[in-house]
Write the structure tokens for this entry.
Amino acid sequence: MGTVDICIGNNLIIDLDIFSLWVDGFTIDQCKTDILKKDPSARACKESIIIKDIIDNYHNFNRLEQYLQIPCRLREQLMFQVSEEMIEKLVERYYQYDPFVIREILNHKLTHKQRKDLDDIAEKTETRVRSCRRQFDNLRQIIRILDDLKGPIFRNIIENFCLPKALADDYTAIVFLARNQFDMSKRKLGYLVLDDFIYCANQMINNWSMSNTFENDTDFSRDFLLSFKELKILSEKEFIDEHKRLVLHGIAKVLNNNLTKDCRCLIIFEEMFKDLSRSLIDIAYSLNHSKDMKDLFFDLVERIIEPCKEAKVIKNEITIFLDEYRKKAHFVPDISKEYPKFSITFDKYILTISNCIIQMYH
């Protein structure tokens, strides 16, 4: 009798469509209904076979979840044989988020009590509670791991959670917003979407945080924020009048070069200049205090964006104003003599704030 070679393996077969439904919080019955709806050919199979396949997949996913919560361990574990390509797909899908859900989660502190109250977010965003809980837990887990690490959070997220760069970049901004507890819940901010906040967070990380040091770049450079106090000089009468004259002249020149005959915005900015300028400088001054820092987005909307919208200023016009406001500050006589670092500090502040305002101006 000939010999028979037997090879026993435990390669894990994963149906990515079922995995996506599991991640989205579908029950077994809901998963079955969705499969039959999307794939009519599946109706040729006995319903009991479809349900058994779903149950088997769900069982495996539940066992895998402990590794998905710390993805670097997924590559090290020996219980399941999963290809590198499949690991990348599983991790990316598991950490994908619904921007509406994360936007709502960031309106609250990431506490155990909040985790128990996710029903309201699920109802408001029309998302299953289990999916909301997964996204909440993922964010809290990332923050918990990062709390013990130094260095750029983007790099730490890549190394510890094996996320693709685009997704890691988003989580870097989301963690920054959560850690610094920016207030995003006020009614006036309701029109802003998560992408607006992510963009603004990245501006602050790149320009105001400690990203160029070995420290964690969700932390602001306190010395740099303290230097914003020097910008207060631009609100003093002896300087604000000259700054206004230079800015209005610059705007008129831009409009003329663009062959724009409508000078309505020039008149508006002439009337609003001092209020807008003082608001921009006051916001800079307030960033020294953590309580005021939390209200940054609200302050930008209430003190800059809303007044301009009420005056019928369009996005292109506020962009021109902010650009001229920055450029002409460098030509106000005597400021740089009294404060040698004024130009550098002012540019780092106003460029970041201007980009945030323009992003939020819709």
Q: What stands out?
A: The chain has three domains: 16-90, 97-182, 223-360. The radius of gyration is 27 Å.
